[in-house]
Structure prediction request, 155 residues.
Amino acid sequence: MRKYLVIIFLLTFCNIFSFPHAFGEELQQGLGVSLYFPPLSENPRMGRNFTVTLKADSLAQKVTAINGEISYSDEKLQIIGISKVGSIINLWRQEPTLRNSSGKITFQGDVAGAGFIGNGGTVFSIIFKPKSSGVASMLWSGAEAFGDPGKKNNI
Prediction:
């Protein structure tokens, strides 16, 4: 009986580690990309500028392009500037463009070379000045991240 358990264990072990593509690749491809704003280290205060950074995580697939539109509470916030320092994007098809009158930021950029795979890659940072007290929101109006530069596959 023990001999059979060892054989079953070895067969199971070999199947899992010899053929990971049978289920692993599909699972990894389903992970896609996360675009997010990490939490601020402290609450913003009137009279003090604060920075919000757009980050990207992609653990299984390389990111070669990111496009998006972000809406924010223009009655509560004013954009002072946008910083691309340390960005994973190194070719901007459309620089991050702000419209304080409509409360929108739009952008389109490419990651040259092998693309980006990793955690916490900076896309760009937004420097805000509070206009009034209260709760302010930032929402995605739309976002796309592409993997293969030869295909338009939104991951």
Notes: The radius of gyration is 21 Å.
